[in-house]
Amino acid sequence: MEFGSGGGQLALMLQSAGYDVTATDAVETFLDEQTRIGIRKVKRFNFLTDDYDAVFDDKADLILSWRNPHLDIEDLEKLFDVVYHELNDHGLFIINF
């Protein structure tokens, strides 16, 4: 699962390597681009405002949050809270900002 996939390049790379990836974003034009480039699973999701359980059926094995320089300290706290509750016990969280 990638939170804030933007144009979808990372999600597409992981999908091409054989991973079951869900690309997410809150911006409709990014979702359209993700679909256009061939990402099979695209979902509208904003971890700041949306209820994870209302959008997804299962906890994630991997959550990526890549290149999100616009996040402030409260946003990061919310991100870590969502990850804490929605990542599988032995899952992996990778963040870059």
Summarize the structure.
The protein has helices at residues 9-16, 28-36, 52-55, 73-86; strands spanning 2-3, 22-25, 41-44, 60-66, 87-96. It is an alpha/beta fold and 97 residues long.
Word description of this protein:
- The chain is an alpha/beta fold.
- It has a single domain (2-96), classed as Rossmann fold.
- It has helices spanning 9-16, 28-36, 52-55, 73-86, and strands spanning 2-3, 22-25, 41-44, 60-66, 87-96.
- The strands form 2 sheets. Strands 1-4-5 form a 3-stranded parallel β-sheet, with helices on one face.
- The mean pLDDT is 95.
Cα shape: globular
Helix content: 25-40%
| CATH C-level name | Alpha Beta
Total tally of structural domains: 1
SSE pattern:
EHEHEHEHE
Structural class: alpha/beta
Kindly report the average pLDDT value.
Answer: 95
- Using only C-alpha atoms, the radius of gyration works out to 12 Å
Strands of the biggest beta sheet: in what spatial order?
1-4-5
Specify the number of helices.
4
N- to C-terminal distance: 17 Å
Strand content: 25-35%
- Which homologous superfamily in CATH is the superfamily? Vaccinia Virus protein VP39
Q: Enter the CATH topology name.
A: Rossmann fold
Profile the largest sheet.
3 strands, parallel
Which residues sit in consecutive blocks of at least 5 with pLDDT less than 50?
Answer: none
**Could you say what the CATH architecture is?**
3-Layer(aba) Sandwich
Compute the number of strand runs.
5
